[in-house]
């Protein structure tokens, strides 16, 4: 969180790139001990149907996935807010959790991550994608229980077909 905008803005910023490399390594290490959850399940499903970049899809879906997930573990998302560098003093746990979600939406916008439609995904695919995502093993690592209806809601949020709830 500390380095990502700097690395995006200036690819020659070696400190920022080093910080991102460390973050990628830590993410990879943690991935070995925990399932990655909905964003990865959704992206893997999508990549099995049409040619899209996995990481770009994960990034595009992260805001809606976090928007769904924070309610399942608000304390964890409040800690995520602090890790993002958000000053959560004076915030309730719920307010801090929502701040983390909004931070992610802003990050995706700041990094100019293309939305799913820009990546060639059609909203007409939502029902199929929701069914297929339920079969992905990453689903079990999600902080909030998932079912086909939940995946459908998240995919719809990716296309702004349902109102934002944070």
Short description:
This protein is mainly alpha-helical and 166 residues long. It is built from eight helices and no strands. Helix 3 (38-49) packs antiparallel against helix 4, helix 3 crosses helix 7 and helix 4 (54-69) packs across helix 8 (148-158).
How many helices in DSSP terms? 8
The CATH topology of the largest domain, please? Dehydroquinate synthase-like, alpha domain
Low-confidence stretches: none
- The total strand number stands at 0
* Biggest pleated-sheet summary: none
Distance between the termini: 20 Å
The shape, in one word, is globular
Q: What is the helix content?
A: 55-70%
Which architecture of the largest domain per CATH? Up-down Bundle
Calculate the mean pLDDT score and round it.
94
Task: List the keywords.
Dehydroquinate synthase-like, alpha domain, 2 domains, single chain, 8 helices, mainly alpha, 0% strand, globular, 166 residues
Written overview of the protein:
With 166 residues, this protein is mainly alpha-helical. It folds into two domains: 1-34; 35-158, Up-down Bundle (Dehydroquinate synthase-like, alpha domain). The protein contains eight helices and no strands. The chain has helices at 4-9, 14-31, 38-49, 54-69, 74-83, 93-110, 126-133, 148-158. Helix 3 packs across helix 7 (126-133) and helix 4 (54-69) packs across helix 8. 29% of the residues are buried. The model has no long low-confidence stretch (mean pLDDT 94).
Chain-wise SSE layout:
Blueprint: H1 4-9, H2 14-31, H3 38-49, H4 54-69, H5 74-83, H6 93-110, H7 126-133, H8 148-158
Helix pairs in contact: 3-4, 3-7, 4-6, 4-8, 5-6, 7-8
């Amino acid at each position: 969180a500390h380095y990502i905008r700097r690395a995006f803005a200036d690819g020659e910023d070696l400190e920022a790139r080093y910080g991102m490399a460390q973050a990628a390594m830590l993410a990879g290490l943690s991935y070995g001990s925990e399932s990655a959850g909905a964003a990865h399940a959704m992206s893997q499903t999508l990549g099995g149907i049409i040619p899209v970049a996995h990481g770009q899809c994960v990034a595009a879906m992260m805001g809606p996935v976090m928007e769904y997930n924070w309610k399942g573990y608000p304390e964890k998302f409040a800690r995520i807010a602090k890790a993002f560098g958000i000053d959560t003093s004076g915030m309730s746990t719920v307010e801090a959790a929502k701040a983390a979600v909004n931070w992610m939406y802003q990050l995706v916008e700041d990094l100019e991550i293309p939305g799913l439609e820009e990546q060639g995904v059609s909203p007409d695919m939502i029902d199929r994608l929701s069914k297929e995502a339920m079969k992905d093993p990453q689903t079990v690592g999600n902080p909030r229980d998932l079912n086909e209806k939940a995946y459908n809601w998240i995919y719809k949020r990716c296309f702004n077909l349902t109102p934002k709830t944070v």
